[in-house]
Amino acid sequence: MTGLSLTPRQEDRAIALAGLLGGLVLIATGAYDNSGSVSPWLAVLPLCAMAGLELFRRTHPVWTVCLGGLVFAGNIFAGSVLATVIMYTDLLYAAVLYGSKRMSAILHLTGAGSTLVLSGLTLLYGTVSAALLVVVLGGLVFIAPVWTADLLRRHRDEAVAERLRAQQTALLSEMDRRGAVVAERARMARELHDVIANHLSAIAIHATGAQSLARRQRRPDDDPLVEVLAVIRENSVQGLTEMRRMIGLLRSSGGGEGEEESYAAPELDAVDSLLENARAAGQDAGLAFEASEEGERGLLAVPVGLAAYRIAQESLTNALKHAAPGTVRLRLTYGPEDLEIVVDSPYRAGEGRVLPGARAGLVGMRERAALLGGSFEAGARGGRWLVRAVLPRGLATAEGKGRA
């Protein structure tokens, strides 16, 4: 159950209407001062004027409280109605709450002065008890609402200040956190560049030198040593390329010196370039490459597109390393629920081609598929080597593309 919610304008109207109706009831029943000698219509005029001022208690607090003082004085002489007095105290309250900060001090001084003057005149022309009664009434009418509004305004200002301070603290904490992340990413980029990337460069250089030495020694291309050197060089160059991309990602995201471009996750749109590179590299080995797509590609989530790209990349790379001369076929099938990647290549049997770390790529592809809840299989079938991965499309989003 929700409570009644009024706008500030509606609240002012409700206060004015309640005061007016309450005052009319008091006048109708004769519950006001000098009711026997003062005409009811004379008491209605200050009541209506005070109710009209209530409509502007927020928008024009200074004018309403000044005019309200005159109406209050007229109310005393015309026959004091309690509703008119209460509405005047509300005008004092609103003037402090919604007016300038100086209004509180001004109304405190004028209220205290009015109470002092009225009580002094009563003491001069009346009794001590009447003067004390005037002091009490003056305090309730002139000072109490001003003091209450002043206290409420101070608490409100303190609450606003505390809220701003909390927001500033949260902002500073977030800036510190981001600064720490930026510093850590920059440090990681430096470590990767200065240590790991340099080691990979050294491995690639030494492998290239060893290959040159093997060629000078006229070793055949199918020599296991030559093949191992080729695998070492190729993997080190690939690792160095990926390492540089990751360094670019860390530096661009971390606010460091962005020497490399931002790392963009590869997608299936780049498979054509993979095939072109594979055709160029496989010409001397008698390898041809074909690709086909079935179904509507639609929108693919970034993790699915990246995993499919990596599986296709690793499968083509393995075909270049191990396949017999012939045609390597890549087929991408886009179903409503999943994406199937199939790569089959001519199978060359024999243990002599098993190289150190040769199955690390298969393990990586199986792990990529498993992380997405898909399946993966690879093996020899009917004289060909078949790699098949099925990835669910359930991760697709409205954007479809993005950065990984």
From TrEMBL:
GO molecular-function terms, A-Z: ATP binding; phosphorelay sensor kinase activity; protein dimerization activity
Record-listed E.C. numbers: 2.7.13.3
Gene3D superfamilies: 1.20.5.1930, Histidine kinase-like ATPase, C-terminal domain
First-tier enzyme category under EC: transferase
Keywords, comma-separated and alphabetical: ATP-binding, Kinase, Membrane, Nucleotide-binding, Phosphoprotein, Transferase, Transmembrane, Transmembrane helix, Two-component regulatory system
InterPro entries according to UniProt: HATPase_C_sf, Sensor_HK_TwoCompSys, Sig_transdc_His_kin_sub3_dim/P
Catalytic activity: ATP + protein L-histidine = ADP + protein N-phospho-L-histidine
Domain Signal transduction histidine kinase subgroup 3 dimerisation and phosphoacceptor, chain residue ranges per copy: 184-253
Membrane-crossing residue ranges in chain numbering: 14-32, 38-56, 63-88, 123-147
Any one cellular-component term (Gene Ontology): membrane
Protein's name in the database: histidine kinase
